[in-house]
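Input record (Table S2, row 382):
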Amino acid sequence: MRQAEDELAALREVGLLRQLRQVETDCPPLLRIDGRPVVNFASNDYLGLAHDEELIAAAREATTRHGTGSASSRLISGSSSPHLELEEYIAEWKGAEAALSFSSGYAAAVGTLDSLLKKGDVVILDKLCHASLIDGARQSGATLRVYPHNNLQKLARLLADNRANLPADGRLLVVTESVFSMDGDRAPLLEIVELVEQHGALLLLDEAHAVGVLGSTGQGLAEELGLQERIAFQMGTLGKAVGSAGGYLAAGRKWIDLLLNGARPFIYSTAPPPAQVAASRCGLKVIASSRGRELRERLWSNIATFSRLRETDIQSAIVPLPFGENQPALQAACSLLEAGYLAPAIRFPTVPRGSARLRITLSALHTEEHLRGLHEKLLTFS
Ligand SMILES: *Cc1c(COP(=O)(O)O)cnc(C)c1O
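Output record (pyridoxal-5'-phosphate complex):
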């Protein structure tokens, strides 16, 4: 039989072994690792809401009123008010008829794609789509087609070819992220929406890294471009800028009813705890409020500062620094940590082989001193 030790040794050999590291969250954006303070450039909590007093109070209140656990799937024991209020809020916020919440963004992606699609349907994904979207597409049994990252010509060709061969009741779905999780660049969303409409297809947009960061009320790239109403499926996570945990899908009522009947991660899993759901709604409310706008302005001012220091145009809170091979990326992450900065070395299979990188994420909580300190340390690598 294959030995686990051998598999682990093989991973270590090529720089692909992952291990957990204990950290203490003192006072964001600072962490403590082995007793030493470290500035966190690895978090997707872009606005610092995961430690926000208002969210903590909302979670505490929900626990006191509704208990620590939801006890079963919502189809079994019913939906409590925090779950329904969260979904109403998301639907309104997204300009959609309805919404469904999941225990994670991963569950939202897999549940949605797996229940919307079946054999005979075609799903077209951007090459850099997140693992959750790929897993959902694969599980569904639909035919998968992939276009090179942000390549509109190839997408147009795939749409035309697959439209022509689609059975009369077949579905044709395009899937993209708005801000890409490991590259930090944006999809050409207006052009994608137009192509999807031209070919009578549907679009699923994952706004995981755009919510809280883009849009006049922090709803993401679709809001920034005024496209929300032209997108059939708006998906996202509540675990990143929203500061809580969970995932959602906002769509027309009939689609949500269909998911309720077919999304296995929703049906066969205990509903997320009331505290998580209440914190999510509170996080969304803060994002849409004037305080949220101030936090967003602070984040963008940090992005502008870091762009100036690095002399590049940064389009989101995610800054990839390419290394190519695994070992140099790991060494860089290690030497950053020694200098007091946490940024992960991202490797295969999270990114394609040969494109290992440091992934730096900026937050509204970073100070100019944090940014300058990191920048100076980064200069020693080139
Ligand atoms: C993080 C992420 C998810 C999954 O969300 P979780 O809530 O962390 O499970 C889905 N899509 C993208 C693009 C992500 O970056």
